[in-house]
Specification:
Helix content: 25-40%
Number of domains: 5
Distance between the termini: 67 Å
GO molecular function: 3'-5' DNA helicase activity; ATP binding; ATP hydrolysis activity; DNA binding; zinc ion binding
Strand content: 15-25%
GO biological process, one term: double-strand break repair
Cofactor: Zn(2+)
Largest sheet: 7 strands, parallel
Bound molecules: adenosine-5'-triphosphate, zinc ion
CATH topology of the largest domain: Rossmann fold
Strand order of the largest sheet: 14-15-13-16-17-12-18
EC number: 5.6.2.4
Number of strands: 33
CATH class of the largest domain: Alpha Beta
InterPro entries: DEAD/DEAH_box_helicase_dom, Helicase_ATP-bd, Helicase_C-like, P-loop_NTPase, PriA, PriA_3primeBD, PriA_3primeBD_sf, PriA_C
Length: 758
């Protein structure tokens, strides 16, 4: 019989045993004389292969890191293919300098995912790799350096005479502790003297050794689960039944319907099996509350992953995912590239959120790649939202996703009542209608909280001259500069340029400059005039800049008692505000007439999400929507029929107008100081693309934000009914583009499934 402890070491994570624990295919090949070159993925933004000679004394597996010469530099890359016929002549091949890993750091499944991503987004593999590997691994130190260490007595340590420490109590204390057991690094650091350790090691009485990271042991629920509603129970059963197979689900649950409880109840059965769960969130801001809810529920390690972690913390999370010692990882976009040992389920909350798509460099959509990952892992994936994207709804319609619905709030509370406030011919007080102020007063008097939504940070969108009408503009962008009263600056929200507030008008020299329009900073000031007794909490990018500020402002809101909460779209994202009974949407009119075909969808989502913050506790909620256009079809539709019906008709419209998600799209962008160069370059792309008449073109067009940071911006849209057709054309264009001299004079990008058309 196998002893118990040996069984558990089989599953333990050591780099010697990493191949087994990372589930790798046996692609280790001892290099033979016949092999010509190996292909290495390097972290450089170039669309080409990099082949190297492997000196006969070196051995390497696919997925291992190697150090190679690159121009005058040395780079750390990942072996991607063995035994390739090199792209260059044998004389030009340079040799690999060193092999860093004995066993792969990138398992086969992840390599497959990254290759897919590089192909799909037509992005250089090297940059895809950079997004996927923690920074410390890109530095090229052996992994063993990062594994946890522990301390134990050497043979002479064991034989040491206790009397010999009589002059050092601290050494005696540590030695004594080590006589009973080895101690891990963290324990030694927190409980014992560092210098005592150093001295014991110098005397060769104590030695350090590398320890293993073991898979987690699930110890059950830490708090009782809630009794599910019938809808919730159906959803949980459906996803549970798909365990062990790839199946995408969309959970469309109205705000406050208890989607999180569904996520929580899917997890225990997977933890029993030792599987891991990835929870993707669109924003860092949502990780603390989700972490709290998940770690309170399970006696199993729940980790977070986001860009605010230090390099060391990220590597730690990466190692724990790889070793199976992390049970649940809650993370933003790039968590989808973690090397889980056994992934059993992926959950994406707020799946409609645009932040799930990376908007610079490697422009991937975390939702779409997560679906690919689930397919590779053979596990279910659950996308949750109160306002699903038209993409996901379309996938349900096409039978690719299974739709699950939660139609009512879990608390039994009715959905908030929506009311349009017509601003025409009204005298407003600080941008608020008399009716809004009166209802705010009423709720505050009752001790309730009121939330005001205004999607414009700063004091005012611009300063204007009261004599000649001159407005403060950014010198580098086609945009006005926002007046920030607190920091006494004009800030461009597009390029970030700041300058001191001018004393005089730039047109006529008058000193009569005044703010135009209202931002959150100004509304905050006015609210404390209107309601001097009531505390105001403002949540926007400026008020949450300081580390920890966001969490402490959220904590304020969780306190009962009258309060005014004011903020930008930050407020709309998945937060649970139990004491808010009234939401006032101060101004949406700017968003009603946008040229972007996605604008109505996004506004519908935003309004529904903001409205969904009302009435989540015991008291019923109400939403006031202030507008100059109460007759606008979108507002009427949302108000009378709700998001689900609105989305259905929006999708129909996309079908009729041949727009995504009913068509596939890609966008070329060009930027340069000279506008004509961009236009010319895109024209060249457009002409080339004409060879494929089944791909429709729109443009080249000047982007809605014509100039940013001094550069003019143009775009060319491509649409096709069939994805392969579009992608084949894109590959052909990209091969051409690299040979055009003009390509070096401008900055260009390709954005597949572009969401940002600004
Ligand atoms: N079955 C249940 N019984 C009682 N209360 C529940 C149940 N499920 C969820 N709740 C409670 O309902 C509230 C709202 O749940 P939750 O925050 O999960 O909603 P949500 O669907 O994620 O909302 P949103 O989309 O607005 O973020 C929470 O306080 C939660 O504890
Ligand atoms: Zn600017």
């Amino acid at each position: 019989m196998q002893p118990e402890n040996q069984k558990s070491t089989d599953f333990c994570f050591t780099w010697q045993g990493a191949r087994a624990s990372l589930n790798l295919t046996p692609d280790f090949v001892a290099m033979e004389a016949a092999v010509t070159a190996i292909r290495v993925a390097l972290p450089v933004p170039l669309r080409q292969h990099f082949d190297y000679l492997l000196p006969p004394e070196l051995e390497v597996s696919i997925g291992c890191r190697v150090r190679v010469p690159f121009g005058k530099r040395e780079l750390v890359g990942i072996v991607w293919q063995l035994a390739v016929k090199p792209d260059v002549s044998e004389q030009q091949l340079k040799p690999v300098l060193a092999v860093i890993d004995q066993t792969p750091v990138l398992p086969a499944l992840l390599r497959q995912l990254l290759s897919f991503a590089a192909d799909y987004y037509h992005h250089p593999l090297g940059e895809v790799l950079t997004a996927a590997l923690p920074a410390l691994l890109r530095e090229g130190r052996p992994l063993a350096d990062y594994l946890p260490r522990a301390y134990r007595l050497t043979d002479s340590g064991k034989a040491a005479n206790p009397q010999s420490f009589s002059r050092s109590a601290k050494q005696a204390e540590l030695w004594q502790a080590l006589t009973t057991q080895a101690l891990d690094e963290a324990t030694v650091k927190s409980h014992y003297s560092g210098s005592a350790l150093k001295q014991l090691m110098a005397k060769e009485l104590v030695e350090s050794f590398q320890t293993e990271i073991a898979p987690y042991h699930y110890q059950g629920l830490a708090e009782p689960a809630l009794q599910l509603t019938a809808d919730q129970a159906l959803a949980v059963t459906a996803v549970n039944q798909a365990q062990g197979s790839f199946r995408p689900f969309l959970l469309e649950g109205v705000t406050g319907s208890g989607k999180t409880e569904v996520y929580l109840q899917l997890i225990p059965s997977l933890l029993e099996l030792g599987q891991q769960i990835l929870v993707l969130l669109p924003e860092i801001g949502l990780t603390p509350q989700t972490l709290e809810r998940f770690s309170k529920r399970f006696r199993a390690p729940v980790l977070v992953w986001h860009s605010n972690l230090s390099d060391g913390e990220r590597l730690n999370c990466w190692l724990q995912a790889a070793s199976g010692s992390a049970a649940v990882v809650i993370g933003t976009r790039s968590a989808l590239f973690l090397p889980f040992r056994k992934l059993g389920l992926i959950i994406i909350d707020e799946e409609h959120d645009l932040s799930l798509k990376q908007q610079d460099g490697f422009r991937y959509h975390a939702r779409d790649l997560a679906i690919k990952r689930a397919a590779l892992e053979c596990c279910p994936i659950l996308l949750g939202s109160a306002t699903p994207s038209l993409e996901s709804l379309y996938n349900c319609q096409q039978g690719r996703f299974t739709k699950l619905t939660l139609t009512a709030r879990a608390s039994g509370q009715a959905m908030p009542q929506l009311e349009l406030v017509d601003l025409k011919q009204q005298v407003l007080q600080y941008g608020l209608a008399a009716q809004s102020i009166q209802q705010m007063q009423q709720q505050l008097k009752l001790g309730k909280q009121v939330m005001l939504f205004l999607n414009r940070r700063g004091f005012a969108p611009a300063l204007s001259c009261q004599d000649c009408g001159w407005l403060t503009e950014c010198q580098r962008c086609s945009a006005f500069t926002t007046y920030h009263k607190h920091s006494r600056q004009l800030v461009c929200h597009h390029c970030g340029a700041t300058r001191a507030v001018p004393r005089q008008c730039g047109g006529c020299g008058s000193t009569r400059l005044a703010p135009v329009g209202q931002g959150t900073e100004q509304l905050e000031e006015h609210l404390s005039v209107l309601f001097p007794e009531v505390p105001v909490t403002r949540l926007d990018r400026d008020s949450t800049r300081r580390k920890g500020a966001f969490a402490s402002l959220l904590a304020e809101i969780q306190q009962p008692g009258p309060r005014l909460i004011l903020g930008t779209q930050m407020l709309a994202k998945g937060h649970h505000f139990p004491f808010v009974t009234l939401v006032v949407i101060v101004d949406v009119d700017g968003a009603l007439y946008s040229a972007d075909f996605r604008a109505p969808e996004q506004l519908g989502q935003l309004l529904t999400q903001v409205a969904g913050r009302a009435g989540r506790g015991h008291d019923k909620g109400k939403v006031l929507l202030q507008t100059q256009h109460p007759e606008h079809a979108l507002l009427q539709d949302i108000m009378l029929n709700g998001y689900a019906a609105f989305a259905r008709s929006a999708l129909l419209e996309r079908q009729q107008t041949l727009l995504p998600p009913c068509q596939y799209m890609a966008l070329f962008r060009a930027e340069a100081h000279q506008s004509e160069l961009c236009q010319q370059w895109l024209q060249q792309v457009a002409s080339y693309c004409q060879q494929q008449p089944q791909v429709q073109q729109l443009g080249p067009l000047l982007s809605p934000l014509e100039r940013r940071a001094g550069k003019y911006r143009w775009q060319l849209h491509l649409y096709a009914a069939q994805r392969p057709l579009l992608h084949q054309l894109l590959s052909q264009v990209l091969a051409e583009v690299s040979q055009w001299p003009l390509s070096r004079k401008i900055k260009w990008q390709l954005d597949v499934d572009a969401l940002d058309l600004s």
